[in-house]
Amino acid sequence: MPKVLLIEDEASIRSVLKDILKDQKELKLEVDEARDGAEGLSKLEADQYDVVFCDIKMPKLDGMEVLQQAKAKGIGSTFIMISAHGTTELAVDATKLGAYDFLQKPPDLNRLLITLRNALDKTHLVKETRSLKKKVSQKYEMIGTSPALQEIRTMIEKVAPTDARVLITGPNGSGKELVARQLHEQSGRSQGLFVEVNCAAIPSELIESELFGHEKGSFTSAIKQRIGKFEQAEGGTLFLDEIGDMSLAAQAKVLRALQENKITRVGGEKDITVNVRVLAATNKDLKKEIAENRFREDLYHRLSVIVIKVPALQDRAEDIPVLVEKFLADIAADYGSKKKEITREAIELLKKHPWTGNIRELRNVTERLVIMSNDPIGAEDVKKYL
Q: According to a count of CB atoms within 10 Å of the terminal CB, is the N or C end of the chain lower?
């Protein structure tokens, strides 16, 4: 049931607005009221409201101050400001402070109801977006309490708020993408897109088109213009996974993009300015690749402002119990079944395994154990299916 708060010092107007809102039976509104700005702010701090109708001229605390303080305290209610002395400047000021809309007293009934419905839709979308972001964040959460992982978390906290480029190294399946996503989520670019490119999965002849886009007719199959990953990630983060597998020709163009913040589409002549943060990851020893002329040294130095080394799972075996518990819960949720338990003896056997495939291999083995074993999963099951 949507909750609406009326902050209005005139009892007669407050009563009329309340009656109008209560008459909207299909919206099933719960309407609360406050006689002045101070009481309104107090109610906003004590409870959650979807929409707030707030008068501007009030004793104790005027509406603009209520709006400003509410936003400063992180109150997410959608504000609709109302005033008998409305001016364009006042409406603009209210919008700058975070108001959704501005209504003149006495408000036109149709305009009021349309604004209310739009505000409720906006609030619903904001809540839905937050919920989805939380789910995505949980999906890419870094699980574990080992010193190695704590060190990575500390580095992420320091580096994420900056625009510094980061090179993430580590073996296959160790969680390099999780580090990249955490860097994005904790950065000022988190509202932008996180665009991932697996450089190893794209043929060398197509990687330039994938990264920089192409113009119509630039090659046989280019039947229309296409924007590349650099442009798609505008204002956000571009993650170049397995960059050690990128061709030298593509490396040269990436280097230019990093140096000048400009790209040129394949078959194009126009320079396009881009605003992206570039993160890169590899499982290769890039210094060795440089020595063997397979990777550009100047690109390496451009990418490796910060280097984060993700350890192999066998180097943080103490995290295996919590990882297994997380995987058991995730698999149960995916299958819509009851979460299976696992014995301490089974966990000890898992901790002793070398895990050449790292976290990815552990996830697959856990799923295999869930499918093939009884509840609880025991040491014999691990010996049989590992």
A: N
Pair (351, 366) in one structural domain:
yes
- Classify burial at 294, counting beta carbons within 10 Å of its beta carbon; exposed 0-12, middle 13-18, buried 19 or more: middle
Contacts for 313 with CB less than 8 Å, ≥ 6 apart:
173, 174, 319, 320, 355, 358, 359, 361, 362
Largest Cα–Cα distance of the chain, in whole Å? Answer: 82
pTM score, whole prediction: 0.65
Q: Report pLDDT for 318.
A: 93
- The domain of 170 spans 140-311
30, 52, 146, 154, 237 from 248: Cα distances, Å: 63, 58, 38, 34, 23
Query: For strand 277-282 and strand 306-309, is the pairing parallel, antiparallel, or unpaired?
Result: unpaired
Q: Supply the pLDDT for residue 12.
A: 87
Cα separation, 180 vs 281, whole angstroms = 8
d(CA 240, CA 206): 15
Tokens of residue 123, six digits: 């609030």
SS3 167: strand
pLDDT of residue 349: 94
pLDDT at 137 over 60: no
Q: Cis link prior to 161 (omega < 30° from 0)?
A: no
The mean per-residue pLDDT over the stretch 67-76 comes to 87
CATH number of the domain encompassing residue 332: 1.10.8.60
173 is written with which tokens? 């399946």
User: How does the average pLDDT of the chain come out, rounded?
Assistant: 89
- Residue 138 in this model has a pLDDT that exceeds 60: no
